[in-house]
């Protein structure tokens, strides 16, 4: 009798231990996307920059998987971010052409399904810290908290859309004409402006503190979490907090990069403090190529790639990317083609949540990440900064070949770029036959492949272009929706006169507001 009681006791406890082990091991991993702004292909030491300093990111490179052929979905911010979050090309999301402004009435349509919303199937806790740039809209309609994020802390657009930086950083020269017609940069907590103007000299410390506090809170629960940490670095105009001003030999850009690197380090330290590093998949990348404006003030670098931000040349969209997950992703380098479009399906697979029931342009990167194997993607479509439905794709990459059917320079690639193809004066130009490059032999897109010797490749590229364009459906443009200055975020809604009255809860008073 006693023996059978002992047996029952053991079986009962064994059952519960097994249940607990399964419950614990079935908890999906945490996900962190680290998204730099306008960081170019050639800006990190591991991507060839001789002067840059980024010791923490270099640690991730050494212990993670570095991509050589990773692409942002678009050469500018809003469409690129919409695609990263939805796994869909900009035309499908409606986030085209160009970018949102503080006055924009549109935004990422609420019916689009973001990574944050997808992860809710497994009850992920979700947060966005930093830049949003997918619309604010009337009554904060398009803010992150309406797009699957439980919390938001940051400036919802780019800091170059606020009055000139001289107002915020008196020791630095002003990069832009000081536009006093717009509201000062608002810092949001969820849908409330908590500081306006934002004190940029303290912004990175605030973001860091928010990230650490949020992770600390998550560590106390049994819920998996998703953090999108979207840095303002390294977007123009350049600034950094006191600690990083004059911190590097690369100047303002290098200082800003090192400051972002420190923020990544702070975040990692918090993860490690709670023993969460091996339970967390981290992916670092950039939203588009480098801005090459004003070379004397410090700009990003596309390395060996042609042109930069705003163009569909390689420098516009091929960006650094690092996947890091100790114990799950082995260190190495991959030459497989992948895109920010692929993050949603990859993360859905890692978290074991269902894919959204929509047409996706992204493909799972699992075999690249976990086996260092072949990727599912051999083709990329390049939609321009200002795409048009009746024009379609500008360029197509298939394996090592890339065909440009249209090219255009862009103001973000610089009036003074040494390469005239990159300058804004190089307007939209059709190419028939297309400019075909072999990116394995000529990553810098300088020498057009001999057409007579490669008629089959030209024919294949055209077939891919036509087939893919037939599959694209263009949502109504959100960016072309009418804009209105009354939509600019203001900490004193309804106040008068604007924009001067939109100043609150900040001890920091910019010089321009004192006038
Ligand atoms: Mg950007």
Tag the structure with descriptive keywords:
disordered C terminus; alpha/beta; binds magnesium ion; single chain; 515 residues; 16% strand; globular; Alkaline Phosphatase, subunit A; Arylsulfatase, C-terminal domain; 2 domains
Describe this structure in words.
- The chain is an alpha/beta fold.
- It has 2 domains: 29-377, 3-Layer(aba) Sandwich (Alkaline Phosphatase, subunit A); 395-471, Arylsulfatase, C-terminal domain (2-Layer Sandwich).
- 25% of the residues lie in helices and 16% in strands.
- It has 12 helices and 14 strands.
- The chain has helices spanning 2-25, 55-63, 77-86, 90-93, 115-119, 203-219, 252-273, 314-317, 343-351, 366-371, 455-471, 511-514, and strands at 30-36, 65-71, 125-130, 151-154, 187-189, 192-195, 225-230, 280-286, 321-324, 332-339, 379-382, 395-398, 401-407, 429-438.
- It has a 10-stranded mixed beta sheet, sandwiched between helices. A 4-stranded antiparallel beta sheet has the order 11-12-13-14, with helices on one face.
- Strand 5 (187-189) and strand 6 form a beta hairpin.
- Bound molecules: magnesium ion (MG).
- Magnesium ion binds next to loops.
Order of helices and strands: HEHEHHHEEEEHEHEHEEHHEEEEHH
The low-confidence parts are 15-24, 507-515
Overall pLDDT confidence:
91
Q: Main sheet, how many strands, which sense, barrel?
A: 10 strands, mixed
Please count the helical segments. Answer: 12
Number of strands: 14
Percent helix: 25-40%
Quick recap of the structure?
The protein folds into two domains: 29-377, 3-Layer(aba) Sandwich (Alkaline Phosphatase, subunit A); 395-471, Arylsulfatase, C-terminal domain (2-Layer Sandwich), CATH 3.30.1120. The chain has twelve helices and 14 strands.
